[in-house]
Amino acid sequence: MPLENDLIASGRWPVCGVDEAGRGPLAGPVVAAAVIMGPVCPLRTVVRDSKRLTASRREDIYNKLVACQDVQIGVSVVDAPAIDTMNILRATLAAMREAVGKDVALLGNIPPRDVLAQGAPGQVRQSVHEILESVEDTRGLILSCGGGMPPGVSAGNIDAFLAAAAQ
C-alpha cells in the first residue's frame, strides 16, 4: 500500500479501494465493492490480494471489515441481462462507479495485465483506447495495470500504455 500511504501522508483523504468479482467467468452478475479504511485502521496492514488468501482467512478479514467502525463499504451488482445489454467491460465499470460514488477516482486493471505483459505495443494502445471510449465521464479516472506490474513487461508496452492514456 505504498501509494495509499503516500496519498494519506500528503493529506489526500479518503482513499478508496475498489475491485470486482464475476468478470472472469462471464456468467452471472458482476459485483463491485469499494472500501475506505481510516488512516489508522489496523486492518489496513492485513488486507491484500484476496486471491492469495485461503477461504477461511478471507472470511475472517471480511467479518472484521464489516464490524469495524473505521471502515466504509459500498457494493454494487450488475446482473447478467444488463451485462448482455452493455457488455462486460461497461458493466464492470458501471458497477465500480456505483459502488464508489460519482466523485471518486477509479483505479483498475486497465489494460488487462495479460495484454500489458504479452501483447504488442499496438494491442496495449488499442486496449487503453477501448477502455477510454467505453467510459462516458473520464474525469477522475486513473488508469493503472492494477495488482502491480506483471513480470516481463517491455518498455515499449509501458510507453504505449502511457502514451495512449495521455491522449
Write up what this structure looks like.
This protein has two domains: 1-101, 2-Layer Sandwich (Nucleotidyltransferase, domain 5), CATH 3.30.420.10; 108-167, no CATH class. Helices cover 44% and strands 13% of the residues. It is built from seven helices and three strands; from the N terminus they run H-E-E-H-E-H-H-H-H-H. The protein has helices at residues 2-9, 55-67, 80-86, 88-100, 113-118, 121-134, 155-166; strands at 16-21, 30-37, 71-78. It has a three-stranded antiparallel β-sheet with strand order 1-2-3, sandwiched between helices. The longest helix is centred in the last third of the chain and has 14 residues, at 121-134. The model has no long low-confidence stretch (mean pLDDT 76).
